[in-house]
Amino acid sequence: MSTAQVPPVTSIGVPRITAGYDEYGRLDLQAHQEVHGGFAALSSGELIGLTDRIELRGRGGAGFPFARKVRAVIDSCKRQDLPPVIVVNATEGEPPSWKDKAILTRGPHLILDGAALAAAALDAEEIVIGIADDGIGQNSLTAALAERKMPCPTRIVTVPHRFISGEGGALVRGINGEAHIPPGRKVRSSDNGVMGLPTLLSNAETYSQLAIAARLGPWEYNSVGIPEEPGTVMLTVGGSATAPAVVEAPSGTPLMDVLTMCGADIGPGLLVGGYHGKWISAEQAETVTISRKGFAKVGGTLGAGMLIPIGSKTCALGEVAQVVQYLAGESAGQCGPCRLGLPDLARAVTLVSLGGSALEQVRQAAGLVKGRGACSHPDGTSRFALSALEVFHADVEAHANGEGCGKQVRGILPLPYTAEKGARKLALDWSRCDGHGLCSAVAPEIIRLDHNGFPAFPQTPLPPWLEDGARKAVNVCPALALRLIDPAAAAH
Do 41 and 119 share a domain, yes or no? Predict the structure, then answer.
């Protein structure tokens, strides 16, 4: 079972989740039992007591206390006289994140152990494991299920590999055969989840941490990390890192220790918490420890453990504009702030990256979507954009005065569409262009006119949702100077 697409996995200190990876590569059931040993079943009260004592919180981004989820499901089951369903969210739809896929491909039995513990404790009707349809980890997980007996029927459900498909409500809808998008209103899965049953839903790493804690007990589990956030944390380090990796580290580890180990050139800023996270400066990064509390001190968030240094050789604003365009295209389209507000935000950020004086437009567009969406997508996107403009203020000034930052967009912030995957880009034949300006009027979200009246646009592949606008701009060009090309084909 190939793990070639997953970054290398390493650890600081003694590994727990990732124990045995170096020796076995992937742990089948026999290797898993040799490395981790057995564990005793837990009652519902013991499950709550254990997860309370180790301060276990969801590792998918929201950080909700696991014990509170269990209590809510138990209360709902009693109130409705219904059995629960256990859902493992291993979709990991955010492009920079790899930690859950690392566990899926190399230590799947740990995820299954945690799900089995919860299912047995709550006398669950079913276990459902949600994974992305990119195929990564599916063979490994299927093989692991074939090697063992689970306490109740267990099935794998694949969902589209999209940013919003991993949101809890979207996953439940997908499992129920509905559209893989957030429900658009607050729905507690503990009350009404899979098949209308009370549902305990948490992230793949969370269930793995539960399996570790059940073996070690609260005392030994809490012997690593900081008292208020004990245990280890799974991190994905990418961006400008010369040795990108999935890293398991004790909570409280200095952030710089992790970044240095991965050869990260921070440059002017570091994205923490993923594309719904926040940019922090290089100076702030030097003061942070790996914990929710540590990141909160600099206004950031641990989220799902993504650390993405931008590096000193990258056009930060160009990278940020591409991501905001991607996030606008990932909208579920079921509320105004997403459907209308995020494209406005993407246009404004793109204008800033192209040298336009659109800072106030960015702030205005972000302000109009914050706190008004049917899910957290508008808030997360605006936080990403606004924090970027704050941290990269020097680049904003350089772009605005016409000089630019002198750096290239290098794909440091990963996206699911690339030239290699068929995404196209705009190109201009300067010998033909007469500066009519019609293209910018038709596609202002992509093209603006520079100081001399000629079109300026990103030199990077376009997100699919902008292709129609780009095609219209090409069609209205009277001089036939503007083209939409396949950069991968042009390179050969």
Answer: yes
Is 413 inside any structural domain?
A: no
Number of domains in the chain: 4
Q: Write out pLDDT tens, residues 88-126.
A: 999 998 899 999 999 999 999 999 999 999 999 999 999
Q: Among 386, 404, 384, 385, which Cα is nearest to 394's? A: 404
Q: How far apart are CA 194 and CA 127, in angstroms?
A: 10
The pLDDT of residue 488: 63
Say if residues 184 and 92 touch (Cβ distance below 8 Å).
Answer: no
For each successive 10 residues of the chain (492 residues), what is the average pLDDT? 73 97 97 96 97 93 89 97 97 92 97 98 97 92 97 95 81 89 79 95 97 97 96 96 97 97 96 94 96 92 92 94 88 68 84 81 80 76 93 92 85 80 84 89 81 79 82 92 79 52
Same domain, 301 and 441: no
Q: Is residue 412 part of a domain?
A: no
Residues 335 and 374 sit within 8 Å (Cβ to Cβ): yes
The answer to whether residue 278 is domain-embedded is yes
Phi and psi of 123, rounded to 5°? 55, 55
Let me know whether 169 and 293 are in one domain.
Answer: no
| pLDDT, tens digit (0-9, with 9 covering 90-100), for 296-319 | 999 988 888 999 999 999 999 999
* Residue span of the structural domain in which 119 resides: 17-222
Verify that 166 and 52 share a domain, yes or no.
yes
Q: How many CA atoms lie within 13 A of 11 on its CB side?
A: 18
Does residue 490 lie in a domain region?
A: no
Q: Looking at the structure, do residues 69 and 190 belong to the same domain, yes or no?
A: yes
> Residue 169 has what pLDDT?
85
Geometric angle at alpha carbon 332, from 466 and 168, rounded to 5°:
135
CATH number at residue 218: 3.40.50.11540
Task: Report which of 372, 373, 349 is spatially closest to residue 361, judged by C-alpha positions.
Answer: 349
